[in-house]
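Usage

Read records sequentially. Each one opens with the input sequence:
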Amino acid sequence: MSIGLEVRKDLKATIVLIVIGVAVYLFAFPAPLTDGDTVFYAEIARNMVESGDWIVLRSERMPVVDKGPLTIWPIAISFALFGESPLTTRAWHIFVAIGCVVTTYFIAREFFDRKTSFVSGIVLLTTILFYYMGFVPQQDIPGLLLISLGMLFFIRAVRRSSLVAFYGIFITLGLGLLNRGLSGAAIPIGIMLVTLISLYYSDNRPQPPFSGISGWVLHIGLGIALMILVACPWYIAAYEQQGAELLDTLLFSGNTRFMSDLDGAANASGIQRAIDWLSYVPLLIVGFLPWSALLVPAVKESASRIKQQRSSSDIVFAAWTVVGLLFPFAIRWRVIRYLIPVFPPLAILIARYVVSLLAKEDRRPAVSERLPNPLRKVAIVDLAIIVPVFLLAVAYIVVQFNTEAADYLPFAVPILLSVSLSQIVFGVLALQRRIKAAIYSLPLISMAGLVTAMILLPIYWVQPF
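and closes with the structure output:
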């Protein structure tokens, strides 16, 4: 098959993903702002437009804003061109989220067929945490796009020996510094370093576009220079107006203040420390719904391939997931959105599991009805654990944030009902071995609830800010 035909088919798949992304976010574009951080970002962007100063980020809430400019600039540009509204605050961000979906497709495409890659994008798009975060402008989704692009460049650099892709990594790192300061570069660097080391033990060793110590030193040095060229102009200009406090906020103590309280952890009981470290498990289960029930079998199959075949694709996604989880665990607060960097690799693993499962079912002859149901255990876990954990997590949120929860209930109820229904329907259909119907029910029912919530939001929402 010609390369041109393959490119056209990938382009077609990309267009379909974009159309689906726009469709599921259609009613979200003009919806009211629901998050205090977004209102804060809009305030900074408004001040930027009104002052005409596109360097210094200003807010009455703090003398030096602890945000990079990369998320503020698109909002400010939208305000300057089209005026201030929820639509102009959010539209660019939704397209960044759709960009994450497309990038996930191309990452999967480096290893797998087009169908698996397409399903990877759909899985990511339809997880409730990713969908909601795409709707709420913050630093996390732009940061995820930069991490994903960096990993795409990294994979192409070590698999295709692409020097252009190698330097693309450093452009994303420079933009990461402009997005979240030091953490915007540290997280992807950590993921890539661990992945690179791990790949030397895989079935497909890295093939970088250069060799020898001198080659590594030369090109890494040039890459760092490129990263500095991307990030430093703004830092220098802002430093001239705000001084060392800006650098301290974005590159030094402003990052370390988020780290875990080691003294407090040392004085805590063993049970308390265990609860603290395990608290992200239910958050991951909730955030990855409606696909959470498939996480265990997908990860289990991936681990088996690593053990038996030293599969390079599974090593890449395992390293990405493990390192991506270490950073949230190192932060003193348990915030569900900090888990978002691990969603693309987990989405790809689940897509591979789902496509393989459906292919096996299609090949299964009718006379083999007595063969073991491949989703029986998954369905039991879903009905016995996933649904109760989800409901308990929701109850905890309502109890802990009862004042704010009242404002969010009209928006949240359709989501909670649809996600719960999707899990129950999936479990029942899976127990009946209606595999295809069970799989399709997960995104379809959940997305119906999410879209309904977006339609109802302008009707019931009372601005709490």
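Summary fields computed downstream for this record:
- Residues 324 and 342 are 6 Å apart (CA to CA).
- The mean pLDDT is 89.
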